[in-house]
Amino acid sequence: MDIRIERANIEDAKDLILVQNDAFLEDFKAYGECPSYNVIIDTMENYILKDFVYKIMDGNSIIGDIHIKENPDNKYYLRVICIIQNYQGLGIGQKAITFIENEFNNAQQWNLITPFKSIRNHHFYEKMGYTKIEEYRHSAVLIMFKYQKNVLQ
Fold first, then answer.
1. Can you give the residue range of the structural domain that contains 53?
2. Which end of the chain is flanked by fewer CB atoms within 10 Å, N or C?
3. What is the pLDDT of residues 9-51, one digit of tens each?
4. In terms of Cα–Cα distance, which of 132, 96, 89 is closest to 112?
5. 25, part of any domain
6. DSSP notation for 24-92
7. Nearest to 23 by CA among 7, 9, 39, 43
8. CA–CA separation, 79 vs 98, rounded Å?
9. pLDDT of residue 121
10. Closest Cα partner for 88 from 44, 26, 38, 32?
């Protein structure tokens, strides 16, 4: 594997949607909905233009993506971090978290959400230093867990 992480551009939008659809398919099947599944092209292009969107590459193939929204006071929201199913469990997510924490070394806090049944995600985020701080109902079928990581400066 030749894994690298690069800033995404508008031309990557369609591929990023396909990657997210692969990565979040199981969540979509489990709940009948998933905020990051089947994003429309205009929305993805808007994210790329306004936020920090990265593509995770293996050679010339996009195998994952990271979407970060900057909030005031050096707080960041990790909107999406995903890896296509065939590449999950290989340590790429850990590399991605390490990458963004190095890239945004001014961050004082990271926040993210993940579905309540995504036990594997819970374990991963906790291993990476995140703490579950809240639960909320996203819809009639979907409860989300909010995780946070405070960074010492």
1. 3-114
2. C
3. 999 999 999 999 999 999 999 888 888 999 999 999 999 999 9
4. 132
5. yes
6. THHHHHHHS--TTSS--HHHHHHHHHHSEEEEEEETTEEEEEEEEEEETTTEEEEEEEEE-GGGTTSSH
7. 39
8. 16
9. 92
10. 26
Report the DSSP pairing between strands 75-83 and 109-115.
parallel
Q: Are 55 and 64 in contact (CB under 8 A)?
A: yes
Domain membership of residue 9 (yes or no) is yes
Q: What is the CATH number of the domain that holds 23?
A: 3.40.630.30
Query: 77 and 146 in contact (C-beta within 8 Å)?
Result: no
Residue 127 lies in a domain: no
DSSP helix/strand/coil, 150: strand
Question: Count of alpha carbons within 13 Å of 29, Cβ hemisphere only?
Answer: 6
- Please report, as a single letter, which amino acid is at residue 110: W
**Residue 123 domain flag:** no
Q: What is the DSSP letter of 100?
A: H
User: Dihedral sign, CA of 109, 48, 24, 2?
Assistant: negative
Q: How far apart are CA 61 and CA 30, in angstroms?
A: 27
**Mean pLDDT of all residues belonging to the chain:** 94
Question: Is it the case that residue 152 has pLDDT exceeding 80?
Answer: no
